[in-house]
Amino acid sequence: MTAVFLGQPGVGNLRGDQSFPAAARSAVADAQLRRNIGRATGTIRTKRLAAVAECDDWQQLRAAGSALKQDVLARLPELLEQLEANVQARGGQVHWARDGDEANRIVAELIRATGSDEVVKVKSMATQEIGLNEYLEAEGISPIETDLAELIVQLGHDKPSHILVPAIHRNRTEIRAIFEREMPGADALTDDPRVLAMAARAHLRRKFLSAKVAVSGANFGIAETGTLAVVESEGNGRMCLTLPETLITVMGIEKVIPRFTDLEVFMQLLPRSSTAERMNPYTSMWTGVHPGDGPQQFHLVLLDNGRTRVLADEVGRAALHCIRCSACLNVCPVYERTGGHAYGSVYPGPIGAILSPQLTGTTGHDDPNASLPYASSLCGACFDACPVLIDIPSILVHLRATQVDSERGGLPSGQDLAMKAAGWVMGSASRFGLAEKALGAGRLLAGGDHRISRLPWPASKWTDSRDIPEPPAETFRQRWARNRGGDR
Amino acid sequence: MSDSRAVVLNRIHAALGSATPAVVEVPRDYERRPLTGSGDIARFAETVADYRAQVHRVGASEVATAIEALVGTGSAVIPADLPPDWVAGVRTVVDYPVVGIDVLDSVDAVVTGCALGIAATGTIVLDAGAAQGRRALTLVPDHHICVIRVDQIVDTVPQAFSALDPSRPLTFISGPSATSDIELQRVEGVHGPRTLDVVIVGVRR
Fold first, then answer.
1. Is B141 on the interface with A (CB under 8 A)?
2. pTM listed for this prediction
3. Of A229, A352, B36, B59, which alpha carbon lies 20 to 30 A from A385's?
């Protein structure tokens, strides 16, 4: 792997400014946040199980989805060139971006060429990832998020915390307050989600009907036909993809799939896994420019931004199979307690813990993204839920091992010394026996709850975030010697 | 720009290594049998209704009456090639020559046909083909009345994809516009048509 040229690391909103344990500590202290996320994920978990149980061939669909994505990665150059040729043949233009900065520049130039200083946006993880909104604002172009949850995040001057529902950390009362504060003319709202949705409709309607330029992401790009697909619920996607004169779509290079009929697999897996519906309300597919119907200028921006770096790791590359359904977030006991902001990246939860550090690469122990592969108890719920069978727990372990290996040499860390000492003690029966005797003294340190919560340095590095159970009055070996000692 | 294309493609080649890619066999043992006979009309009616769309089953001679009742005294925009007898009793605006967005925003409803319907998921698919018109027609008006013949109903998602033509603009519609963005609870009616009526034409029930 040393000979492999690694792609430019991912740039944009992929890294927080503190490690996961530090960020999680303040997140779990926020009782409102925990309640909001616990309620929302609890609702969707039950519904997803019912939606999946309806498909007798669910496991076969998962296996097909997984194999299709493996095939895509194995043939990526060929499929991208095919996609490009077919989009161009149908009147679209294709642009390639090495990283987020380049993609942002391309999009801003395309918008400027239209003479517009405002764009409507369909929810897109790729443009969140590269920080397109921030870039456009700095360039004097107003990006208007039209997805309800993205709008809540944008109006709340907030950050997304979930792949599918970026405002999952907000409850209806908080959303009402944000709307009343930020939407001109929105007053006398109630907490009823229907009333809040209607307020968003009224707020955006004029924008949709007058917008000249739209920016979208893509769920799928079909190599054999040049067709792009956007999967959505509200109709904001259809508005953006249909009414403006110019459409600019930013798509990660791993989103290409070989054939149109391959959608028969993904369009069953994705809706049931993400919103637990048999089918999402709206899916739009278009191929280049359709004369007299929809945007007459179409640009596709193909984005690397660290994806080729992920691809270079034979184990880790399976993270690129992700279809962004967010089922793994909804079932994760860690995500349920910390929410998405603690992960620092726009990709939170289990998939984020394997995707973000690989996209950015990590610069050593103090890199916040280096802590993400540890943000898991390895319980495996994410793997069970993943519609394309990404073995997230194994990749987490692989990334932990890679991280530890990369830090070998130089001064040994506290953990290295502790492991060495443990190895020395456990290497001999008599030393282990002595250690067990010493352990008994630990009983004196335990509190009334039979737990040791505070030890002096260096053991404090352990007890700062965990309790140690009181050592038993008698170890297994001591008990064995007492009961069966004569048998030897 | 072309420089970036070469850089990205070179990075991919480098990341994949020099070995010829192993052929990945995609297991296709999921349900993908072709449709035999007619689709499951009752299931289609049930799954469409689950999204809180209104379902109407009528005989071939009753389409106009059903549509007239749904549009009422309001006006409906229609594609130029909609069968005129469907809207005999309705005040219509024909999208020929092409009408402006303000007109689409001011009419009460839109009446179209569709390309097909999927019984397993309660989905109707529009492909801008016969009796459907351009995509904006079914998007801007707040009430969509979609007519589907029973012989346009297929059972499964794979059957739909094998029947569709990707070179056309495709819109999959499953119920009225909805969102799950507030506490992950589904609420109908955001930016797309807030009312969806699906008129199934065939054997009357």
1. no
2. 0.92
3. A229
A307, A327, A357 — which closes off a domain? Answer: A307
In this prediction, residue A456 carries a pLDDT of 83
Q: Which residue has the higher pLDDT, A411 or A50?
A: A50
Angle at CA B103, nearest 5°, toward B98 and B109? 100
The distance of Cα B19 from the centroid of its chain, to the nearest Å, equals: 44
Determine, for residues B178 and A233 on separate chains, whether the beta-carbon distance falls below 8 Å.
Answer: yes
Would an 8 Å CB–CB cutoff place B32 in contact with chain A?
yes
* Interfacial B residues in 176-205 facing A (CB < 8 Å): 176-193
Which residue type is seen at A131? G
From residue B24, alpha-carbon distances to A45, A72, B146, B158 in Å are: 32, 9, 41, 21
B96 and A CB contact within 8 Å: no
The residues spanned by each domain of chain B are 39-201
Q: Which amino acid is at A222?
A: I
Structure tokens at A354: 């394997």
* pLDDT exceeds cutoff 60 at A3: no
Residues of B in Cβ contact (< 8 Å) with A285: 166, 169-172
Tokens 């599918």: give the residue.
Answer: A164
* Residue A378 forms part of a structural domain: no
Which one is predicted more confidently, A365 or A140? A140
Contact B169 A287 (CB under 8 A): yes
Q: How far apart are CA A51 and CA A54, in angstroms?
A: 6
The CATH architecture assigned to B39-201 reads: 3-Layer(aba) Sandwich (3.40)
Compare CB distances from A4 to B14, B98, B140 and report the shortest one's residue: B14
The pLDDT tens digits for A374-417 are 999 999 999 999 999 999 999 999 999 998 888 777 777 777 88
Q: Please, which residues have CB within 8 angstroms of residue A371's CB and are 6 or more apart in sequence? A: A19, A20, A21
Q: What is the pLDDT of residue A434?
A: 87
Which H/E stretch holds residue A251?
strand A246-252
Tell me the per-residue pLDDT of B132-160, one tens digit each, with 9 for 90 and over: 999 999 999 999 999 999 999 999 999 99
Give the pLDDT of residue A404: 86
Number of domain units in chain A: 2
- Averaged pLDDT for residues A111-132: 97
Q: How would residue A435 be classed by pLDDT, with cut points 50, 70 and 90?
A: confident
Q: Contact B128/B168 with Cβ under 8 angstroms?
A: yes
Q: Which residues contact A167 (CB under 8 A, 6 or more apart)?
A: A148, A149, A150, A152, A153, A156, A158, A160, A161, A175, B181, B182
Point out the residue among B157, B176, B191 whose CB comes nearest to the CB of A264: B157
A49 shares its domain with A182:
yes
Q: Are residues A289 and A428 in the same domain?
A: no
The CATH number of residue A189's host domain is: 3.40.50.10420
> Do residues A293 and A419 share a domain?
no
Distance of residue A326 Cα from the nearest chain B Cα, in angstroms? 12
CB contacts, 8 Å: A311 with chain B: 12, 15-16
CA distance A380 to chain B (A): 23
**What's the pLDDT tens digit per position in A312-322?**
999 999 999 99
Q: Which of B114, B134, B180 to mutate to test the interface with A (most CBs of A within 10 A)?
A: B180
Nearest to A77 among B4, B13, B135 (CB): B13
Asked if the model's pLDDT at residue B205 lies above 60, the reply is no
pLDDT for A5 equals: 46
In a domain, A337, yes or no: no
Residue at which a domain ends, from A307, A327, A345: A307
What is the predicted pLDDT for the residue at A437? 82
Contact residues on chain B for A6, CB-CB shorter than 8 A: 11, 15
Q: Is B113 on the interface with A (CB under 8 A)?
A: no
Task: Provide the domain limits for residue A433.
Answer: 414-487
When pLDDT is averaged across residues B4-28 and rounded to a whole number, the result is: 91
Task: Mark whether A118 and A255 lie in a shared domain.
Answer: yes
Is A317 part of a structural domain of the chain?
A: no
pLDDT of A195 above 90 = yes
